[in-house]
Amino acid sequence: MSSKDHWQNVYSKKRAGEVSWYRPHLERSLGFIRSCKLEPDARIVDVGGGASTLVDDLLDEGYRNLAVIDLADAALAAAKDRLGERSESVDWIAGDVTSSLLPEHSVDFWHDRAVFHFLTAEDARAAYLAQVTRSVRPGGHVLVATFGLDGPEKCSGLPVVRYDAEGIHGIFGDLFEKVGDASELHETPWGTAQSFVYCLCRRRPT
Fold first, then answer.
1. CATH number belonging to domain 3-15+28-203
2. CA gap 41, 87 in Å, rounded
3. Among 42, 54, 83, 121, which residue's Cβ finds the most Cβ atoms within 10 Å?
4. Which sequence spans correspond to the domains of the chain?
5. Under a CB-based contact definition with an 8 Å cutoff, are residues 83 and 57 in contact?
6. Per-residue model confidence as pLDDT tens digits over 71-125
7. pLDDT tens-digit map of 32-59
8. Would you say the C-alpha torsion 86, 89, 95, 97 has a positive or negative sign?
9. What gap in Å lies between CA 43 and CA 162, rounded to an integer?
10. Residue 76: what are its φ and ψ, rounded to 5°?
11. Quick count: other Cβ atoms within 10 Å of Cβ 92?
């Protein structure tokens, strides 16, 4: 089964609140976004956003240049249905973030909670990094959250790579400056604790 088919199958069978990574609000991510003091028209892209409520909260805070990317059309459809008419102010992109989906240097804030750790192959990570480098403007920010070193070894039946904040930054290299990090214990909808780590980087001016 392809990655797209896998995630389409997940979201076709489960509601948004029934997947392990669901949170009613992504408080940690919102805190990092607020810390960057972005303008209301800043381009914020939620990579692998699926049916996440992050876009709802960003709209509530007045951001008006938002995009959500996901492999699964079913996940995007769930978010659109939840937002109703408000969904018309968001760009919904069905596609693979390791391919060119965004204009060059168009992104002010790249948000990824729990996509990067599924990239277990070196070439997939290299393709992801190439798209981040291409899409995020100099001075823009990248927030990546993955399972921590003591987190699960699999998610949704797929293997993952676990990181600490320095490990995430090490993948991104000298082109990006690490400006913040955090860890949290995420509680799944059924009460299991999962270790997450966050790494916020800023693309160095060129």
1. 3.40.50.150
2. 16
3. 54
4. 3-15+28-203
5. no
6. 889 889 999 999 999 999 999 999 999 999 999 999 999 999 989 999 999 999 9
7. 999 999 999 999 999 999 889 999 999 9
8. negative
9. 28
10. -65, -40
11. 19
Least confident of 10-14, 158-162, 164-168, 183-187: 10-14
Q: Which two tokens stand for residue 65?
A: 């240049």
Tokens 């799944």 identify what position?
A: 188
Three-state SS string over the chain comes to: CCHHHHHHHHHHHCCHHHCCCCCCCCHHHHHHHHHCCCCCCCCEEEECCCCCCHHHHHHHCCCCCEEEEECCHHHHHHHHHHHHHHHHHEEEEECCCCCCCCCCCCEEEEEEECCHHHCCCHHHHHHHHHHHHHHEEEEEEEEEEEECCCCCCEECCEECCCCCHHHHHHHHCCCEEEEEEEEEEEECCCCCEEEEEEEEEEECCC
Which single residue is written with the structure tokens 């509601």? 15
Q: How far apart are CA 150 and CA 138, in angstroms?
A: 33
Cα–Cα–Cα angle for 75, 80, 82, nearest 5°?
A: 100
Cβ-in-10-Å burial (0-12, 13-18, 19+) of 99 comes to exposed
Give the C-alpha separation, 79 to 4, whole Å: 17
Nearest Cα to Cα of residue 58 among 80, 95, 88, 90: 90
Which amino acid makes up residue 85?
E
